[in-house]
Amino acid sequence: MTFIEETAFRARQTSYKLRTISPAQRTDALNLMAQKLIECKNAVFQANAADLRDAVNLSPAFQKRLKVDEKVFNYMVNRLREAAKMPDPVGMIIEQKSMPSGLEVKRVAVPIGVIAMIYEARPNVTTDAAAVAVKSGNAVILKGGSESLRTNIVLADAMLAAAVEAGLPEDTVQLIPTSDRAAVAELLQQDKYIDLIIPRGGKSLIKAIADGTRIPVLKHYDGICHLYVAADADSDMAMKLVINSKCQNNAVCNALETLLIDAALPDDAMQKIINSLKENSVEIRGCERLCARFPECIPAVDEDWDTEYLGNILSIRIVDDVYEAMRHIAEHGSGHTDGIITSSEELAEIFTAGVDSASVLVNASTRLSGGGDYGMGAVVGISTDRLHARGPVGPAELCTYKWVAVGNGTLRK
Fold first, then answer.
1. CA gyration radius for the chain?
2. How would you label 22-47 residue by residue, b for 16+ Cβ within 10 Å and e otherwise?
C-alpha cells in the first residue's frame, strides 16, 4: 500500500469512528484548534516567511494569497471559533412522520464520510477545511500547493494535536506533506476510500481534477457575475451597488463582471453609473447600444460576455427588459451570483424565480454572496453545481442523510 493509499484508507477507517463522536467533543476540538493555533503563532509566521522567500519569483497576486499576516491569522482563529458556535448539523432531523403501518420514520443528517481538499496558495483553506470537516463529522485529507507546504504543515499539526486531545481519532485531519504533483494524481484514484473532492483554485486546476477522477467533485469554474439594473431602479442605490460589486475587490469570484442596464433607465441614472465607473478607473467594454450613447466606451466583442476578468474591466450590455436580462444570464452566466436592482417586488420575484444561479440577490452587492455574509461561518468554497450543495459550502452542506425507521415488530401486510 502506497503512502497516498494508506492515507486514504486511514481516513476511511476514521470516518467510521467519527460517526459516533458527540457534538460536544467536536465543539471542544474546534475551540482547542483555535487555541493551539494561537500557541504556535510564531511558528506559523516563520514557516510562512520561508514559503514566501521561495515564492519571490511568483506573481504579486499569488504572493498575496500565500501570505499569512496578522489579519489572515486572526481570520483563521476566528473561523475555527465561529464553527464551534454554529448549530451542529450531524443528527439533525430533516423530517419525521408516523406511518399507518406503525413505523416512525425519520430522515437524519449524517456526515458524507471522507473529504479530500485540493487547493492552491491560500493557507487559510487549511484551517477552513479542518473546521468545516470536524463540525460536520467528516475525515479530511488536505493537499495544499507546494508553495505553502511549510505553513500548511505547521497549521495541520496544530489542529490534529487539538483534535486528538479533544478525543477525536488521530487521523481526523491528514495533510499530504509533499510537493510531488504525482501525489494529486494518485489521490484522485482513491475512489474506494474518498467520497468527495473539493478543489479550490483556478479553472485549470478544477477542470484537471474533475477530468481525472471517478470521485464526485464539488466545483466552480468561473464567477461571471451579473447585475441587472431595472428601469425603476433608484439611481443612487444602483450606482453604489455597481461600484461596490465591481471595485470593493475585483480579484474574487463574486465580483461583478457584466452589468445589464434596462434600455428604459433614465439617461441621468445611466450617466451616473458610467461616470462612477470611470472615476474608479474601470475600463468599460460596451455593446453597440451603449457605445452609441457613450462613445468613450470600448466596443465589446463576443468573448467579453463569457469572461471572468478578475480585474478592473467591466462589460455592459443594454437590454430591453428583465426577460432579455435573464436570457443573457442563462446563456453567459456561470451560475455563481447574479442580482437585480429594482423598486418592484413583482420584478424582483420574476428575476429570482427565473435566474438559476447558486445565489440570486435583490438590491444587494454581489460581494455579499459568501458563507460569512449568509451566516454560515467557515466554508470550504463555492459550488456552482446543481446537485447536492449550491453556493457556499459549510458544515451542513458536507452532510448527506439517511432514513431511520423504528417499528415494534412491524410487518408488511
1. 24
2. eeebbbbbbbbbbebbeebbebbbeb
Per the structure, the complete domain to which residue 152 belongs is given by 3-218+393-406
Q: Is the distance from CB of 356 to CB of 384 less than 8 angstroms? A: no
Helix (H) or strand (E) run with residue 275 in it: helix 267-279
Residues 178 and 307 in one domain: no
Q: Over 90: is that where the pLDDT of 61 sits?
A: no
Which residue matches cell numbers 467520497?
A: 195
Q: What is the largest CA-CA distance in the chain?
A: 80
Is the whole model's pTM more than 0.85, yes or no?
Answer: yes
In Å, what is the CA distance from 356 to each residue of 231, 317, 326?
22, 20, 9
Residues 25, 60 share a domain: yes
- pLDDT given at position 387: 82
Chain-centre distance of CA 363, in angstroms? 22
CATH number of domain containing 248:
3.40.309.10
Based on the domain organization, do 111 and 213 belong to the same domain? yes
237 & 162 share domain: no
| pLDDT at residue 18, rounded to an integer | 96
Coil, helix or strand for 375?
A: coil
